[in-house]
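Please predict the structure of the following assembly.
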Amino acid sequence: MIFNTPIFYLFFVLFVLFYGVLLLRQRPRVYLIVVASLIFYGTWNYRFIPLLVFSGVADYFIAQAIGRAASQRGRKGWVTLSVAINLGILGLFKYADFVLLSVADFLQLFGVTADLPTLGWVLPVGISFYTFQSLSYTIDVYRGEMEPRKGLVEFVAALSFFPQLVAGPILRAKQILPQMHELPVPTWKDVKHGLLLVTAGILKKTVADLLAIPAARAFDSVEPISLMETWTGVLAFAGQIYGDFAGYTDMAIGLALMLGFKIPPNFRVPYFAVSPVDFWRRWHISLSTWLRDYLYISLGGNRNNRRFRNVMITMLLGGLWHGAAWTFVAWGAFHGMLITASHALGRVKAFAMFHQPASRWVTVVKWAATFYLVMLGWVLFRATSLSSGLSMLADMHGLGGALPGPIATAPTILLLTVAIIALLHWMDYGVIRGADKLESKPWLFWLLILLGQTLCLMVGEPSNEFIYFQF
Amino acid sequence: MSSSTSSSRAIFARVLLVITLGMAACYGIVRIFADLNDASAETILGRVMEARAALPRILAEERDLVMFFGSSMTRAGFSARLFDRQLEQSGIEVKSFNFGVGGLNPYFQDFFSRRIHEAFDERDRRLKLALIEFVPFQLTSARWRGAQPAVDSFLAMLASPREMFAMVPEDPTRGLQILNIHYLRNDVSAEITTWYFGQGLETPPPTSDLPEEDEDRQQRLQEIGDQLNEKFEEEYPDYVPSNFNYDWQGAGTIPDERSPETLELFTEFYELQRTPRRLENDKLQRTACCDIVELHFEEILVESFIRIVLEFQKFSDHVEVVLLPRNTEWIQYPPEAVARMQAVLDRIRRETGVEIRDYQDVGFGPEHFSDTTHLSRYGGDVPFTAFLAEEYEPVLAGLVAAGD
């Protein structure tokens, strides 16, 4: 069930009717959230509902056990069990085949043909999101950052809460559990802001689907294409993945807000970043902060001169989180190197000016360099294989041999792609900075909502799935 | 009820009101936009809709009915009236119809065939003979990919309400999407709108390297085109213009209804049109859109074709599959493509028991075609229709005799 489809609209209308109008007491409403969320999840593949419930139930009881454990050793044992269960589920469904095939490929290098059996299991949608969300709860309890909470149904409701279930943002237990314990009532301002976010999200998703076409031409084409179309394709993918993912999370946050739930933002105009570190403060914030808090810090963070090693491990695993393929590992490694390099360059005197409060031109140079590097990263992310990614990087820089001339429409498509990416950011910036002002002018606000929603009904590819569902 | 409970209910009631009224307003604008652009089933699938609308009149015919169901190649290559006339000379009285429609593929034709079947069942009638055209390049993966923007819209136009509702339990997301397109969007999906407005940005197919044609030729073609239109109006003053006008099926395809001057104009027109550059461009375009030479078949389209045959078998005394003549000078299959096509034909034969007549190589040369695939008016359709009448005379004689 995708947000921008008639079935979700019907689902949401019925949910609001029951949740807000017909049911008035706390407990039935929480039960409704669970049932509705499981129905929502089941529309993809109902066979995976038990897996989601199991993950939640296991972590709920493990957190209780951690809370009760008398010794540190006992606490550690329980949290280790939680990590093993969640990463075990993830490993089995997401990474087992990748590991087996990689081992077979590795052995092939030594002339050994290993016909290893693969599982061939379907990847449960949203598995990477809910396992991380569930895991954060037990780790927080283990670290003493929160008390284990009573109420299994509330916990399952928080974990499966449909707006953010399949593609995040990855919520922390301390953000969502208190809200599930005392269900919030939205203010009219919340409702309006939620609608604005939903509209902005659908618009982003709509333009992302349009950008998928030039991106596919560059990444999936068998025939060689021109330099201009190659760059356009990479730019288009940069816009597509941003519009697709940020659009989804905007809708998730907006829908939750219309129900009164506050979910923190997941994107902050990411292509305005002026350094690789800055990029990760703006892109998929809930994942980057999760990795920082639960992986990077667990590895020792900046201490013991192991910062570079820890950054690399964190980014490699962050890359792998996105998918079981070497392209994602390479993408994570690339970003790890960028972050490491920017930290290292910070110590070099010649680059000191880039670390001071800078002039506008220095900021522009930093922005351009960051955007260029992020684009190179997207090539690895989107490529169908590592070799095709590297060959595309070579083509982009004129190192891959002669390319044909551009097709007649190439300049127009390039301009449109740039314009759409700018529009996406303008929209993001407008929602972040100008929402209050806009919401204070009812006629303009409702007109924009109406036009935005109508435009998305009129054009686009509403049946296209969201890219991040596969992660 | 506490005040907080009632205020909570009031805010959620407001949410409901906003999202339902808002959506109604949005759909209203979408409908107005579609109407302003004249976008509807009638304008997008005009010939199909008119053919469906004509079915009651067709079914009121007293004579035995013959239908040639196919693509634009059938539309161009088969003259219904000429076919009937030739059979009449052999004492066989049938009324045949050209159900050739361009722009469809077997997936859509499958739904169209079901609607025809329903109409026949309603009147308790059967077809004496159904000929179903098999167009190899209509069943390719390339063709299926190209059709994607139209799938939902065409489905909303061609599926019956029962079929659309039946989709809901099988795939609720898709089922509701199709119902939504049919009932709220006037059959016009967002995908088809996007495709329509984005056509200009599509990657153009490769073009021929042969030299451009001179302007005189272009101008002459334009002049002949205008003259032919005028001649048609003169020679068929009572003709009712319609995409699918069954009374007139074959209008303009019977040489003795035309003046010698008109026939000469046609000859000149096709001679001017069949330049190597135009034909190569046509082939390149069909290679890009439909994989016309290599023929990599798409499973869903093969399955659909089989369903079409099975559907016609339910309301026809006799069904056969026909492959129309191929412009062998331009369309030559490599052995792998022949093998792939043969495998598909064998499968159709096996799963339906239908007889397949392959007329791809029955002596029609490039001079019989208007481009790389369509038979030309008079030069191609007349000899092919005569050939078909000859081929099917014994079949129909047997069927008619059996019916008596």
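The interface with chain A takes residues 1, 4-5, 7-9, 11-16, 18-20, 22-23, 25-27, 29-30, 33, 152, 172-174, 176-177, 179-180, 185, 190-191, 193-194, 197-198, 200-204 of chain B (CB under 8 Å). Chain B is about 60% helix and 5% strand.
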